[in-house]
Amino acid sequence: MTEALSPTTPLLEMCGIEKSFPGVRAVVRGEFNLRSGEVHALLGENGAGKSTLIKVLAGAHRADSGTIRVDGRNVHMDSPHDAVREGIAVIHQEFNLVPALSAGANIFLGRESTQGGLIRKDEEHEAARALFQRLDSGIDPGTPCRDLTVAQQQLVEIAKALSQKARILVMDEPTAALSSREVEKLLNIVRELRNQGLGIIYVSHRLDEVFAVCDRATVMRDGEHIATEAVAGLTRGRLIELMVGRKLEAEFPRRTPDIGPERLVVRGLSRGRSVQGVSFELRRGEILGLTGLVGAGRTEVLRLLFGADRADAGRVTLDGRELRIRSPRDAIRAGICLLTEDRKRQGLVLGLSVRENFGLPNLPRFSRVGFVRQSSERSAFESFVRALRIKIPDQEQTARNLSGGNQQKVVLAKWLQTNSEIVLIDEPTRGIDVGAKLEIYHLINDLAAGGKAVLMVSSELPEVLGMCDRILVMREGRIAGEIQDVSRATQQQILQLATG
Amino acid sequence: MKFSFKRFFSDYGMAVVLVLLCLYYSWATYTTHEPRGEAAAPVLATQVAGSVPKNANVLIVARANEEDVNFAAILEARLKDAGVRVVGKITGDPRAARLALQQLSTNQVRLAAIATTPECAAWTIFERLNEKYPDIGNPRVAIPQSYRWPTFLKKENLMNVANQIVVVAILAIGMTLVIITAGIDLSVGSLIALSAVVMTRLIRDHGGVEASNGMIFIAGIAGVGACALIGLFSGLMTTVFRVPPFIGTLAVMQVASGLAFIVARGGSIYEVPESLTWLGRGVGWFGIPHAVVLMAVLYLVAHVLMSRTTLGRYIYAVGGNVEAARLSGVRVGLVVVFVYVLSGALSGLGGVVLASQLKSGSPTYGLSYELYVIAAVVVGGTSLSGGEGRIFGTLIGALIIAVIQNGMNLTGVESYTQKVVLGTVILGAVLLDMLKRRNWRELFTSISRRK
Questions:
Q1: CATH at B365
Q2: What is the DSSP letter of B438?
Q3: What's the pLDDT score for residue A1?
Q4: What would the pLDDT profile of B7-41 be if each residue is shown by its tens digit?
Q5: Does B443 sit within 8 Å of A329, measured CB to CB?
Q6: Does one domain contain both B181 and B209?
Q7: Does B28 reside within a domain?
Q8: In chain A, which residues have their Cβ closer than 8 Å to the Cβ of B324?
Q9: B4 falls within a domain
Q10: Tell me, what's the pLDDT at B432?
Q11: pLDDT average, residue stretch A318-327
């Protein structure tokens, strides 16, 4: 490590980067430098300017001012093409892969080696296999990308970057969609690439990973460079403080649970191989955590309870009454709601206003003979805007333009209006920044304190441990174990149950 | 709600285009008009009555054709009302006029004016009148004054535009809803034909030319109902069997067209009573055609449906994000089936209007109408990817297409060239829309935020 940190010419230097969009100064003073053989974290809340800085580096945006130097040479990033030529590769959160094409074809897309106009497939596969070996993975280059797991697709992206002789690798939230085991594997790959001499810019919300793999960290806030420090000399609290610009009292708010009788009782819930004989009880005022690896069937359980998918077998009773849930409509009527993990695809109609989104499941209440009474809808929403402190200029704002935290609050408001008694939440803080997270946690606690029963799925173990009164761990479609005494539980304990 | 200029522009920017087009064609067709026939008579009567003394003698001269005879009759009545003495009304050839003049000359009747048409005024007998017939004095030869006015803005032409567009505009309502749910309905053109032949066949078989108004009404309902049923079929195909609507309605388009030929036994049906044309050709208050009134009412109802009702909200939600809508408890299938049934029914209604306009039914009606309808919707600013669109935008889109077609006809553009222009306009509208979505909106919001 000492060798990697030796004071030579930095691989990459970005100085005084400025970038404005009409009305918004996205980056005011962007400073960043990267050495080869280093993993450098780029941190900040949503809107801090990280993405813009990355886009400037990738040639997707042209900076208004400032200089970029690679190996001490001034370079101009006028197009993504320039970035590729300088050996810069960006792996975005959303992959740029063609699902129907094979892994090998995706790696060499646009740079196929041909002979007489025909693609030399064998050569391509050979090269792809070699790249996968370098990543310690045995993916068959002939597999169509749609048949690969998310983690494997990510490796294809990394292989693609390596095949372009990338020396600077930007990874934007690389672990957002990975399970704990896959994360561990990815971090090993990142370390391996560092040892091979690459410079890696690591953008993530997950501080654990920053401490696990990064050498230095640069924090941005409001478009400005705040600090660049060696990770070894930082604490978690200090990092959060740098990011939000103030001290946070605690990552998870305290609460004294007031747990009542059983409300929702689930017995033998099954669907195909993804959910097999799941049984549990959910009590009044309780926050029950449901965790496990990605693909263990956690989200599927929520979807079955909500009627988004049909169960093959199982009985569900609410307050002793048996429920027959065939569609989300039935579930909503029974007083169950689901806050999905993917708000943009499943939770909100992005093109509609926030008021219209809020009204969607509540229209029967806000209408008379089929006509929407906008005034009552408006005033009901207004009270939630105030209670949940949703930050919007007006109710006609389209949902697309809100930050993650505000979107989550709008979704929460719409379900609170339906008077749901059972609240199912999938990844409540995914894509939400540190400051807003705390607010969401407070709101969840308020739900429980108000006598509702909360079932919360989360991949972030600190969140599960910090929030829940009881934890269920799933593995391969089954409940692998239950943790009653959360205060003494550890992440290792959960991981052991999850991996078996 | 507060009126926002910005929002108005992004929703109805095409309205500005429409106004500009109308201005352009008004300018391009600004020419001299000579009033003719019945319309010319009151104009001339006022002119003459104002220029001669009370109880002066006036002779009316016109030719013997129907138009001129009507002109002369109305002119005579108006002049008498204005207190002018009409000493003669000749509808015939120059010889008849000469005879009349000779007669008046013999009787020493002094004429103040000869009221006539531009054509008659050119006759040689009216040259040097006071030399030929000194006894009649020195009458002025008066013709209706010509005036300058855009042909485009003449009442008959505007009616023409309205009649041309009314069928497409009615269909476009249903299409807008279908496209807002991210679907498409290619069968609407064939459904026009089906509805028209179902209706006219029923009329022919139950009374023919003597069919009662009740029968016509029932036949019309049957035409609309048949198309609504086919819409139901399309809707079920897309929801229950998940057939992509492009393919499903393409097939239905063929089926409906074939059915129309079967019902009409391959030919056109003309055995219908005159009263069938009430809807298509009749005019109501202020000379507004009945069909245009129907169209306006439908647009108002559709606008209220989309902006004020739960169903309208659900339609936008399903098109914007079908999964989010479903997880919010919206009965997605019902909503989608509804829009296809509505599109079918409105296509049927369009067929009824067309049959009424043409006083017949034929399986070849509505050929490639679906393209004009889709073009109207797209030009009106509705996104083909669903979730966005305004009803009145579609009306504007339909009007833009009609105005361009009409204007090109008036300015003598060849029909082949018209197709090229129309295609380019549609493409331009789509490009403009994308530009607006990408940049203008961001620009606008950021500017307002800065303030």
A1: 1.10.3470
A2: I
A3: 39
A4: 666 666 788 888 998 999 989 888 888 777 777 88
A5: no
A6: yes
A7: no
A8: 345-349, 360
A9: no
A10: 74
A11: 92
Mutation site for A-interface testing, chosen from B307, B328, B390, B438 by largest number of A Cβ within 10 Å: B328
| A336-354 mean pLDDT | 90
Q: How far apart are CA B153 and CA B148, in angstroms?
A: 11
Task: Quick: pLDDT tens for B260-277.
Answer: 999 999 889 998 898 888
CB A415 within 8 A of CB A443: no
Q: What angle do CA A454, A407, B393 make, to 5 degrees?
A: 135
Cβ separation of B442 and A338 shorter than 8 Å? no
Say yes or no for a CB contact (<8 Å) between A306 and B326.
no
Question: Would the pLDDT of B331 be above 60?
Answer: yes
Confidence of residue B450 (pLDDT cuts 50, 70, 90): very low
Query: How many structural domains does chain B have?
Result: 2
Q: From residue B240, how far is each of A351, B243, B326, B331, B427 by CA, in Å?
A: 26, 8, 15, 13, 34
| A178 SS3 class | coil
- Same domain, yes or no: B94 and B233: no
Q: How confident is the model at residue A246 (pLDDT cuts 50, 70, 90)?
A: low
Residue A331 with chain B: CB contacts under 8 Å: 329
Which residue, of B123, B145, B167, is where some domain finishes? Answer: B145
Beta carbon pairs, A and B, within 8 Å: 93
Residue finishing a domain among B145, B173, B201: B145
Q: Could you report the per-residue pLDDT of A393-407, keeping only the tens digit for each?
A: 888 888 887 877 888
Q: CA of B388 to nearest chain A CA: how many angstroms apart? A: 7
The answer to whether B316 contacts A352, with C-beta atoms less than 8 Å apart, is yes
Please indicate whether, in this complex, the C-beta atoms of B446 and A23 are within 8 angstroms of each other. Answer: yes
**pLDDT computed for residue A421 by the predictor:** 92
| A360/B328 Cβ within 8 A | yes
Residues of B with CB under 8 A from a CB of A: 308-311, 313-314, 316-317, 320-321, 323-331, 387-388, 442-443, 445-447, 449-450
B127 and B100 belong to one structural domain: yes
CATH code of B113's domain: 3.40.50.2300
Calculate ∠ Cα A258-A262-A266, nearest 5°: 135
Give the domain range for residue B136: 37-145
Alpha-carbon distance of A398 to A402, in angstroms, equals 8
- Chain B residue at shortest CA distance from A371: B309
DSSP, collapsed to helix, strand or coil, labels residue B83 as coil
Q: Could you tell me the pLDDT band of residue B65, with boundaries at 50, 70 and 90?
A: confident
pLDDT tens digits, A457-486? 998 888 899 999 999 999 889 999 999 988
Query: By a Cβ cutoff of 8 Å, what residues of chain A touch chain B?
Result: 21-24, 306, 308, 327-329, 331-333, 338, 340, 345-352, 356, 359-361, 363-364, 367, 370-372, 401, 414
Same-domain status, B169 and B128: no
**B317 vs A contacts (CB less than 8 Å):** 349, 352, 356, 360
Q: Write a three-state SS string for A63-103.
A: CCEEEEEECCEEECCCCHHHHHHCCEEEECCCCCCCCCCEH
- Percent over 90 (pLDDT), chain B: 44
Chain B hits for A364, CB-CB cut-off 8 Å, are 310
* pLDDT confidence of residue B325: 93
**What pLDDT shows up at residue A3?**
42
Are B310 and A24 an interchain contact pair (Cβ–Cβ within 8 Å)? no
Backbone phi, then psi, for A386, in 5-degree steps? Answer: -75, -45
What b/e string do you get for A403-433 counting C-beta neighbours within 10 Å, with b at 16 or more? bbbbbbbbbbbbbbbbebbbbbbbbbbbbbb
Q: Give percent above pLDDT 70 in chain B.
A: 94
> Cα–Cα distances in Å, from B323 out to A414, A455, B251, B262?
16, 21, 27, 41
ipTM, 2 dp: 0.75
- Would you say A462 and A208 are in contact if contact means Cβ atoms under 8 Å apart? yes
CB atoms B387 and A340 under 8 Å: no
- Is the pLDDT at B163 greater than 60? The verdict is yes
